[in-house]
User: Fold this.
Amino acid sequence: MAGASIAAILVCLLSPILITVLSAIMFKEHLTKKHVSGIGIAALGTFIVITGGTVSFSGDREFLLGSLILLSTPVLWATYSLLGKKLISRRSPFLVVAYVNMLGGLCLVPFSLAEHSLGQILTISLSGWLAILFLAFTCSLLGYYIWLYVMKQVGAAITSSFLFAEPLVTALFAIRFVGETLDIFIPLGAFLIFIGVYLVIRK
Assistant:
C-alpha cells in the first residue's frame, strides 16, 4: 500500500529513535550530544541505503492508509523492547522470549483459522518445514534472545542503534544472493551508519 522504501524508512528509522527517546524518559538512560549526533548520522545513512538518495511520495488514499498502518510498527516494537527491558530486570531473557513466542503463536491461531490455512500444515514440503524451523530458531528464538540480552547489558538506546544497519545488511544480502547491483549510495550509507553507531557505543 505504501511501498517498500516508505515501509523501511518508517520502521528502520523511527524504531531506534523512538526506543531511544522513550528509554531516556522511562529508564532515565542518559543521552549525550554524542549519542544524539550518532543517531542522526546513522539515520541519514539508513535513509540513503533504503532510498538511493531519493524518495517519491504518493498522495492517494491507499498510500496514506498504508503509511498510517506502518506507523504502528515502530510504536509496537518500541513497546515490546521497553516492556522486555523491564521484564528482564527480574527474569531471564531466554524465559521472556519463550513466553513471548508461545503467546505469539497462540495469537496467530485465530487468524490462521479465519483464512483457512491451518489445514495446510499437512501439505508443507520438507524444504518448507526447514524454512519454518530456520525462522523459528534463528529469528524468533536466537535473534530476540540476543536483542533482550544485549539490552539488559548495555541499555535500550545503544542496542536499538544497531537497527540502523538492518537495511544495509538486507542490501548486501540482496547483492550476494539475488544479484542486485551495488551503487554508490550503499557504501556511502554504510559509512554513515558505521560512524553513527560508533559514536553511540563509544565510551
